[in-house]
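Translate sequence into structure tokens.
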Amino acid sequence: MKEVGIVKLILAIVHDEDGARVLESLNKGGFSVTRLSSSGGFLRAGNTTLVVGTDEDKVDEVLQLIKKSSKSRKQIIDTSSLGANNSMGGVYMPYPVEVTVGGATIFVLDVDRFEKI
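Result follows.
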């Protein structure tokens, strides 16, 4: 087994609209990425969870590539279509609401062991 330095696992949850762009940016930067479909958050909207394993000294580079490729934006949602049993705590609001979507939620985790088989 080849000896490696300190390895970090990066989990980046991005909006589906940004997923392909972030994935392409990371691949062009030379990083291997695993893509998972996910959903959640206030709107239970579609997300893409990207998993990247990298050396500790490359973490900032990965984070910069994600930041450049995933942007938050304002979106108007029609809350009346959500009904009273929605993710807004059961509060019925029969009018459109502006919310911020997109951006990225990123976790950087220590890796105790890494093997590529």
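Note: The two ends are 10 Å apart (CA to CA).
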